Structure formats: C-alpha cells, structure tokens
UniProtKB/TrEMBL annotation:
It holds the Pfam family Chorismate_bind. The gene is menF. It comes from the Bacteria. The lineage of its organism: Bacteria, Pseudomonadati, Bacteroidota, Flavobacteriia, Flavobacteriales. SUPFAM superfamilies: ADC synthase. This is Chorismate-utilising enzyme C-terminal domain-containing protein.
Length: 370
C-alpha cells in the first residue's frame, strides 16, 4: 500500500529513523527528507550535502540528515476549529526575576564598554498531548511566510518551528542574506513607529554582516531597510546580496556570519561567551541554523549554437538555503520547551524586554491548543 505524505513521516518516526519536513517561505510545497538508518552524521567543513541542523554554540556539532529518499507534496491542511483556545502560560515570578536581572547585567556590561549588544533568551515550558504532526500542520496553517519545519533524529530529539530569518542563500557563487532585528507587536497598524533602540539594533546587525563579508564577497548590494511582518510581530529587515569570491568556501561564509548580532551580540565572540556563562539554560539548536546544504539541481537549457537550436544542455546548480532557528520548540513526549529571546542594547528596559519575549512566545503558543 502506498503511504501518503503524513503517513510516511509517522512511519519514519515509529521506526525511529531521522527525517525533516519543511516548507519554504511563501511556497505551498512541503519537502520531506528521510534518512534510512540511525547514524548520527556531523558536519566537518560544510562541503557535505544534506539537511543541516546546527546549534547556537559553534563549538558543538552541527547535525546532517542524509537525503536517502525525498518526497514533495502540497498538503491539504485541516482548518483549526474556531473554538479551540491556545494554551495559556502562567507568569513564573522567579523566572521573570532572573530574566530582569540578566537583562540589567547585560545593560551594565554595555555601559561599561565590554559589549555593544547582547541577546538573551529564556525557555517557556508547557504540557501538551497534541500529536507533533498536528502541531506541525498548525504551524503550516498559521505561518505561510515563514520557514516551517519538523525535524527528528532518534539520537538528538524532535524540534519544530517557524522562522522568518534567512541566514544565507547561495546559488553557485551568488549570495543573499538579510539583517533582521528589532521587534514590535502587530496591533493592526499598516506600519509601526520604530524607536531608537530598534533602529540602533538593526544598524548594528547590518553593519556586522557587511563587515563580515568584506574580503569574501567581490561586491555586494544593501537594500533599504523596511518593516517586515511575521505573524503577530513586526521586524526591521535589510536584504544584502553579492558574489562570493572563487577562493572562498561556503564554510568561511557561514562561520563569519553565525551567530549574527541578531541572536548573539557584539563583539561576536565576547557576546557568545557572556551568554553561555550567564543564561541559565542550554540553547541547543535555538538560534542555530538549519536548511539545505549544497543541494544539486539540474537545469535544462536550450543550446545556443546556431545549428543546434532544438537541442538542450544540462547544467548543475549548487544551492544552499539556511535559516536562523528562531520561533522554535523542542518536543519531549508531552513536554514542550519553547525558546524566545531579545536583543539588549544600552537603552533596553528589563520590563519591556520581558514583555517582548512574552510576545514572541505567542508564535509557538498559538499553535498549541488545550
């Protein structure tokens, strides 16, 4: 009997074999990659081919799911019943106190001149008996403009999410990335009114990316900064594109960009170490990155020679498409751990930063129903 798309995923999970299903932003087709054994593949130099799932801490291993078989389908999604309520989370006083103190510690470090910016995160834990595949379908329904995925490896665990942030897109030598920073809650307005804190945060990220690409990219273009809506949140976004130098490998580009100041801070390594020392949880794959690594695509084009108009020749495109792992959760049986964070600058107010993380948590909480 031929298995349908969702049944394939269920069977793979039942057999405890690695898989990832994902839909790219503004597309309808859901891709499914299956690995036919439980081997844990790790990335060595980013010259490998497969679906990569990398942690925040670049000193830890990035996982690679091999593309042993793949499928693609437009899923007919079941509409969520209107009367279903999203799960609620009670405010934990001790967790809030810790986060407020952590934000203030970050502001103090910035005022002392030790950091320019730092991004702190926290965990939101909820219980749910909902099937992970139903949660994934809820994500697909709620967030058509995000990169929506469900990822599983028996030796690592299960994650799913909906992220709006591109880390890197490369097609042969053509590169595209984005600077995404600043957050405001969407309240029905056509355009948000950004404050100095958000504008400064966005400028830092854009400057970091352009500085990181110098010497690796022959030329690059920086777009105007626009307001970009992702679900119930607004962000500031700037697109950056260019042509990568022939002698520069994709690994060098990835290492120079990750983690960006949008998820770590500045200076990059100082901020990362400050986070690892002071946050009270292990981020694991939250604020890491994930996506297609060195996928090959055949393209048939007409032969241009005069006497061979009707013939075609094939070219191979090598494509990489990576997204920053934001708005995500880890699933452990009925325990769901949602990860949220926010950028801290000199002007940050601890109470407002707590509210921002609460607003961001709704992206994942909205897909979990009572």
């Amino acid at each position: 009997m031929r298995l349908n798309f969702l049944d394939r995923i269920s069977q793979q999970f039942k057999d405890q074999l690695p898989f990832v299903a994902y839909r790219k932003p503004n597309e309808e087709i859901v891709q499914l990659i299956l690995q036919n054994n439980q081997e844990l593949h790790t990335v060595v130099d980013y010259e490998e081919t497969g679906f990569v799932f990398a942690p925040f801490n670049s000193n830890e291993n990035a996982i690679l799911i091999k593309n042993d078989s793949s499928f693609a389908e437009i899923l007919q999604l079941e509409k969520t019943e209107e009367n279903l309520e999203s799960v609620a989370v009670e405010e934990n006083i001790s967790e809030k106190t810790f986060h407020l103190e952590l934000v203030q510690k970050g502001v103090n470090e910035i005022k002392l001149g030790n950091l320019e910016k730092v991004v702190f995160s926290r965990e939101v834990k909820v219980k749910s008996s909902q099937n992970p595949l139903q949660l994934y379908q809820n994500i697909l329904s709620h967030y058509p403009t995000a990169f929506c995925y469900i990822w599983y490896h028996p030796k690592v665990g299960m994650w799913l999410g909906a992220t709006p942030e591109l880390l890197l897109e490369m097609e042969n030598r053509q590169l595209r990335t984005m600077s995404l920073a600043g957050t405001m809650k969407y309240n029905g307005e056509s355009e948000p009114d950004w404050g100095n804190k958000e504008l400064e945060e966005q400028h830092m990220v854009t400057q970091f990316i352009t500085d990181s690409l110098k010497g690796k990219v022959a030329s690059y273009d920086v777009s105007e900064t626009i307001s970009s809506r992702a679900g119930e949140l607004w962000h500031l976004k700037t697109d950056i594109s260019g042509v990568v130098n022939l002698e520069t490998g994709i690994g060098a580009i990835i290492h120079s960009l990750h983690p960006t100041p949008a998820v770590g801070g500045l200076p990059k390594l100082k901020a990362r170490d400050f986070i690892l020392k002071n946050e009270n949880h292990h981020r694991e794959f939250y604020t890491g990155f994930l996506g297609e690594l060195n996928f090959k695509e055949e393209v048939n084009r007409p032969e241009k020679r005069r006497n061979q108009e009707n013939r075609a020749y094939r070219t191979i495109k090598k494509k990489t498409l990576l997204f920053v792992n934001l708005r995500c959760m880890k699933i452990q049986e009925e325990q769901l751990t949602i990860y949220v964070g926010g950028g801290i600058t000199r002007e940050s107010d601890p109470e407002m930063e707590w509210k921002e993380t609460s607003d961001k948590s709704r992206t994942m909480l909205n897909i979990i129903h009572r």
